[in-house]
Design a protein that fits this description.
This protein is α/β, with parallel strands linked by helices. It is built from 13 helices and nine strands. α2 runs parallel beside α3 and α7 runs parallel beside α9. The chain is globular and about 70 Å long. GO terms for molecular function: L-serine ammonia-lyase activity; threonine deaminase activity.
Length: 342
């Protein structure tokens, strides 16, 4: 609808070499129309609504789903109402508002499992009574729309890379990781799909690594990684099943590691992603430390899921960037000489 999908797959210029990896690639989902992979989901969901003649969309979001739905609903002439999780970045909220969506923040939503369950209960009841979808980017709620996300894996299969050995995907509720596994399985590709989560929202990764069959909810999500604060299980059980079937594993990473890789992606690769977009790379680092990826002869893809412009608050808070220096025009030549020596 808006040109979603067919995002670039680019080879690492510096990080791969620093990690000893000869073949590291980044799938740049941050270059979708609204800045995240959620556009693949929204394109299908809104197309289904248009086909059904529905003119009112009610949804929940931590940011990216809401931005995607807001944009696609605007294009389709559908009224969009988003109930946003507690603590969602203001950049994402402003993006939704600019598309014309009606935004309501819900205290404790997305952080407290009890509050989250109550919110979903209320919205599920309303949507069922009015024969509307509840657009949550999870197979539990929207399995047909999530097939749009599966196209990501199909694009990897159809890329010029002969064989991708490992795909690292970030996870909150697990929808993206599950979509990638489904796409890999349906395409007949021979790729291991690994699930990576921040330590403060470890619902899937440790059970996957510990050979458990079921994901587990956490009492409260404590990670600062926006978009991955999903304390409930959602698609976690099937993520474990599919990742294990493909030979994948689970990786738990610290918020600090994620922020570090976010900055390195910007300074060493020219890729400006939001923190969630760096989670896969943090997981790859852990895999290399565990000797679970062979750096010399295996090809790895890390999913870069969202744009850094989505969360400028994080940039201000975590990287202590200084104000640019103001100089007189007479000093420009001298500044060039000085800076050229660095």
């Amino acid at each position: 609808m808006l040109g979603e999908g067919n995002t670039p797959l680019v080879k690492s210029r510096r990080i791969g070499k620093a990690l000893g990896l000869e073949n590291l690639y980044f799938k740049l989902e941050n270059l979708n129309p609204t800045g995240s992979y959620k556009d693949r989901f929204a394109a299908v969901l809104v197309s289904e609504m248009v086909a059904a003649g529905q003119k009112f969309c009610i949804a929940t979001s931590s940011g990216n789903t809401g931005a995607a739905l807001s944009a696609y609903c605007a294009a389709a002439g559908i009224t969009c109402v988003i109930f946003v999780v507690d603590g969602a970045p203001s950049s994402k909220i402003r993006q939704m508002q600019l598309y014309g969506a009606h935004i309501r923040l819900v205290k404790g939503f997305g952080l407290d499992p009890l509050v989250t369950a109550k919110v979903f209960g209320i919205l599920e009841k309303y949507c069922a009574a009015n024969k509307l979808p509840l657009p949550v980017s999870a197979y539990r709620y929207c399995p047909s729309a999530m097939r749009g996300v599966e196209t990501l894996a199909l694009e990897l299969k159809d890329s010029t890379i002969a064989n991708i050995d490992h795909i690292f995907a970030p996870a909150g509720g697990g929808g993206l990781t599950l979509a990638v596994t489904k796409g890999v399985i349906s395409s007949g590709a021979n790729s291991k799909v690994h699930c990576v989560q921040p330590r403060g929202n470890d619902t899937i990764t440790s059970p996957l690594r510990d050979h458990a069959s079921m994901a587990r909810a956490v009492a409260a999500s404590t990670t600062r990684i926006s978009g991955l604060q999903v304390p409930s299980v959602l698609d976690g059980n099937q993520v474990i099943e599919n990742c294990r079937a493909l030979g994948g594993n689970g990786y738990v990473v610290s918020d600090e590691s994620v922020f570090s890789w976010q900055k390195r992606l910007a300074t060493q690769e020219g890729i400006f992603c939001e923190p969630a977009g760096a989670v896969a790379l943090a997981g790859l680092e852990d895999a290399l430390l565990r000797n679970e990826v062979s750096p010399r002869n295996e090809t790895v893809v890390c999913l870069i899921t969202g744009s850094g412009f989505k969360d400028m608050e994080n940039v201000h808070q975590n990287f202590q960037l200084t104000e640019p220096q103001t100089i007189e025009e007479t000093k420009i030549s001298r500044e060039i000489e000085v800076l050229n020596q660095h």
